[in-house]
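Notes from the 1:1 (GR / supervisor)

We went over the backlog. Supervisor wanted to see one worked example end to end before approving the batch request, so GR pasted a single chain during the call. The sequence is below; no edits were made to it. Supervisor asked that the structure be written out right there so they could see what the output format looks like.
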Amino acid sequence: MATDVKVPALGESITEGTLAQWLKQPGEAVAVDEAIASLETDKVTVEVPSPVAGVLAEQMAKEGETVAVGALIARIDEGGTASATPAEAAAAATTNPRGAGENPALRDEPTAPIADDPPAGPDDHITTLSPAVRRAVLEYHVDPSKIQGTGKDGRLTKDDVIAAAEALKGGAPAQAGAQAPPPIVTPANAGAQPEQKLGSRLRGNDEGGRKEERVKMSRIRQTIAKRLKEAQNTAAMLTTFNDVDMTAVIEARARYKDLFEKKHGIRLGFMGFFVKACALAAKDVPSVNASLDGEDIVYHDYLDVSVAVSAPKGLVVPVVRNADRMSFAEIEKTIADYGKRAKDGTLGMEEMQGGTFTISNGGVFGSLLSTPIINPPQSAVLGMHRIEERPVVKDGQIVARPMMYLALSYDHRLIDGREAVTFLVRVKEAIEDPTRLLIDL
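Structure output shown during the call:
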């Protein structure tokens, strides 16, 4: 008996999504509630579970296709028998990149094996490779069955393939005769679909094998671009800067990190200090935590902090709600959980809605200074940056201190320069003297 699989509800006001990837291929066995496909919406990627146990009989949509909520995308044969093991299916998938996302039963071309790629063994633990991973396997000529995946449920990622190739070749691309490095994965192309990538135009010339690749923006990247441009077009944005001596926070972490982790099961990071410092500063300068609604100013007596997190398909901003009432441990646990689920693509849309203030930590990527963009309808965003030792004057002496630049971008329609500077100074004071966080000073 065949059971239909339809696009599930994707959230309020969302009526369609893009079929990002088939996680199961026709002929493969599936368990009840096992993910068979992933869908990309404007905000998150969600997985489509199988309603029954059986065998995937048919795919009704292709990767990269836009599908509406409730649309039929697959059929599961409850009494079927799997035609291949997951490892065999994965190995077969790497041999024909042009067939990615197609129903193998509809292809007329025979599949030719890749030279130097041994068949998958019975002990391999590989799930179906994504289009990006298949492409990387072909470019680097590596055996996916011998690579340990670091993605969700042990799946291989493109970074896994590149790391394996570099390990084998001492850091050089594994493809013989390659004259140019492989394309760099950026947030703009990380979410690209297989038909878009494999069908893109590649152009070569006689001057070193240079090439171009045209990739359609993912839905998430399109939404990010639209919202950020709207913020620039609407808000009267201005950025003020300051620097902060991180000595006291670093010493506090070093003194208490072991006890903190033993008691709470989470590492003590910098974000807890900055969230607390912003909550304290927002009490003195409430306009930074306010928003504009038409001709009205909406002030909030709570601090819902949007924390910018880098995900494989672009920037996502989950919200730490009531952060002003949280303990350090609660803040750190919440942010750590968001970071993990952003990487896995399992964040829910409700977790990224709202927010009254944003903190973005570009320092984890090595950024020294930036001018972050406001996340509408919020009126301000704090940018953190990397810590580096710099010479500063203390008590008439030039000494080295671990310094960090802070940037506060704000909407000048609502926040005056004096208020923005005052807020940033309050954050600086709290970080340089964390005791202020305990006595609400």
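Supervisor's comment: The CA atoms of residues 45 and 145 lie 26 Å apart.
Batch request approved.
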